[in-house]
Amino acid sequence: METIWFIFPRAFAARRAAPLGIKKNELAYSSYRGYESKAESHVRPRWGNVPADKIDHIELQTWIQKELSATLANKTIKEIVSIIR
Predict the structure, then answer these.
(1) How many CB atoms lie within 10 A of CB 43?
(2) Alpha-carbon dihedral sign for residues 47, 37, 34, 69
(3) What separation in angstroms does the CA of 60 have from each of 28, 77, 79?
(4) Taking 90 as the threshold, does the pLDDT of residue 21 lie above it?
(5) pTM
(6) Residue 58: HSE in the Cβ half-sphere, 13 Å Cα cutoff
(7) How remote is the C-alpha of 68 from its chain's centroid?
(8) 7 vs 23, which has greater pLDDT?
(9) Residue 13 reports pLDDT greater than 90
């Protein structure tokens, strides 16, 4: 079962993530680095060991409302959630 870390292999090389050039080739370098940073800073600490298909919608919404909304702008939250989807 793949976790969400296959999207950004460089940030999660320690997790032996499968390489994925698709996202990296679709985005500008700066955009890719921004998503990579958000994944490392916000997504990995909470969802690092959870397979992507096991992330519960209710748990995700609770995380957004209790943790992310308190300190982040809506645009940033949308970008973070798009990493998980």
Answers:
(1) 22
(2) positive
(3) 28, 12, 14
(4) no
(5) 0.67
(6) 0
(7) 13
(8) 23
(9) no
CA distances from 74 to 20, 40, 65, 77 (A): 27, 18, 11, 5
- Report the 10 Å Cβ neighbour count for 27: 14
Continuous H helices in the chain: 21-26, 29-38, 44-47, 57-63, 74-84
- Total domains in the fold of the chain: 1
Phi, psi of 6, deg, nearest 5? -70, -15
- Confidence (pLDDT) at 22: 56
| pLDDT of 19 | 37
Domain hosting 11: range is 4-84
